[in-house]
Design a protein that fits this description.
The chain is α+β, with helices and mostly antiparallel strands. Helices cover 44% and strands 18% of the residues. Helix 3 (68-84) runs parallel beside helix 4. The protein is globular, with a radius of gyration of 14 Å.
């Protein structure tokens, strides 16, 4: 099994558990250059808030878009937007990525900004 198939298998397992509890989820995706975050409704049809390093508001304060500082900034922005949309509690969907580095930095920043996992 290659790296992508392993990640997709982990993601499927996580998403099925989140779907069972029916929670609003904070879903992330990372590439080698950027990191993206979305707050998705419990039925999975509506994106309530989103933030990424490609947005000019987030990108303005950053030197690089592919490091822990960038992930921390995206975590702060997604928490602010989610709280503005009326969401305070989410389930963290890491999309099969291992919980360390940029993924952990984004999650910690979102928690500090007021989101509850």
């Amino acid at each position: 099994m290659d790296k992508k198939k392993s990640r997709m298998k982990r993601a499927l397992k996580l998403r099925s558990q989140i779907k069972k509890i029916g929670a609003t989820r904070l879903s992330i995706h990372k590439t080698s250059q950027h990191i993206y975050a979305q707050v998705i409704s419990s039925d999975g049809t509506t994106t309530l808030a989103s933030a990424s390093t490609t947005q000019t508001q987030v990108n303005a304060a950053l030197k690089n878009t592919n490091n822990i500082e960038a992930a921390t900034e995206v975590g702060k922005w997604i928490a602010q937007k989610a709280i503005a949309a009326g969401v305070t509690e989410v389930a963290f969907d890491r999309s099969g990525f291992k919980y360390h580095g940029r993924v952990k930095a984004l999650a910690d920043a979102a928690r500090e900004a007021g989101l509850k996992f």
